[in-house]
Amino acid sequence: MSEEILLAVEDLTVSYRLGRSEVRAVDEVAFELRRGEVLALVGESGSGKSTIAHAILGLLHGAAGIDGGAIRFEGLDLATASDRVLETIRGRRIGFVPQDPTVSLNPVKRVGEQVAEALRNHRVSNRAQALRRAVELLDEAGIPDAALRARQYPHQFSGGMRQRALIAAALACRPALIVADEPTSALDVIVQKQILDALAGQIAEHRTSVLLVTHDLGVAAERADRVIVLRAGRIVEQGPAAQLFREPREPYTRALLEAAPSTSVRWVRAVAPETVRRQEPLPPALIEASGLSKRYRLGRTRVIDALTDIDLTVRRGRTVAVVGESGSGKTTLSRVVAGWVAPSAGEIRFDGRPLQEWRRERAKDLRRRVQYVYQNPYTSLDPRYTVGRILAEPLEAFRIGDRADRGDRVVALLEAVLLSPALVERRPAELSGGQRQRVAIARALAAEPELLLLDEPVSALDVSVQAQILHLLRELQAERGLTYLFVTHDLAVAGEIADEVVVMRAGQVVEKGALAQIFDAPASEYTRRLLAAIPDPARSRSARPPFEELHHEERKVPSP
User: Fold this and answer.
1) Structurally, how many domains does the chain consist of?
2) Residue 144: is its pLDDT beyond 80?
3) Residue 472 belongs to what domain range?
């Protein structure tokens, strides 16, 4: 292998055994990754992206096996290497950023200890040195008050902060290769830019290579030297990023690009001219919040103001998108509106009555009328239940229908979210991410609610499934008159679904207004920064020097 080739995947084939059947997830995939290069794997859910990444790391699911091919890393075939050999490489020579920070961090260990783990396991540092380095890594990853946060547990971190901690852990030993499986899917665009800039710094300083698995075509376009497009386990198209996104040859690649949310194209949510809107009577308010504040204690002496003096109105049949960075208070606001978290100050009125009255006198009716769709479809469904039981549970809890017709109602719910009734006997593990999120939406609809609180409902999904879910939500709203409070860190996604946008930062509202106002004439510098930071495939479609020119000077440096 040439010293410039760090990783060579040769005709890799991986299959999953499901009972007596076998599913081929990766089919004779071959590519090379050079030192200091960023190679992005893109494609829909189920295309084989993560399976390739896990095969390289020796972390395939127990039901999966490598049927053929080789994975040569620094001359060693990882496909045939023993577990002991792989353990010496993982963390030290190959860093891994997993997709799901919720299940990837140990809930009973402090975050700093987990970031320091690779340094101690590979005997790079002693315990005291490793913990000091962990604080530095957390700070470099953009976590404020890193010394304090290093002593906290994962549940005390937001989703974005947990992802940053995982990235810090992957960089701890300065590996030659970083395998990043959707490393920024839980991050807002500003922190995403910081993280990707940090990775770029590693590449420049240490000639680190990155295998980037992502469903975000904007990230791939702006950050990768080369891109491989996968579908059903096979390579559809590959080439330099600028060329591939500027002139995609394959219809499948063009379809992915068309599905990607982008601020460079007009949003699909039609916004009537202001002169017309003034003549239309505004719908009545379903949610009215005034002076909302929420304060949390951090340790014995410190407090965090998660919300400060928030005013919010959500009108019937409309969608209000709440947008901001990780830690801006978006999710806290949605939980306070749902009645799950009591505000420290202020008042919320639901359908004209104070929320306290609903919680005290008609709590069950409030739970039925206000439903929540969580961010992560992988953890929001009980893995022990079948889809049928998951959907029947709220029907039973709210006594909707009788036992005889609940089966028909379950089928109707599946059809409402465009899923086959044949899925009724399956469990969540047997569904794709997009199918799981549709089941989660169907479960919320089962209670026949008026308000859906949607907390990052598409951030974990690839662009084509994301587009399908957003289209589904718009259709359901039109058919059922639903009202949405839509939490997202992605302004481009907000542009696909919102009527109004509320921009938050550090627990405060920076600005709010109609979608056209926020996108076309943002009043706040912070909003302009959010818009400018959104990765966009269209912005990257200009010619740039090929990889050979970009890295010509680096190649004069001997390989580490």
Assistant:
1) 2
2) yes
3) 282-381+449-523
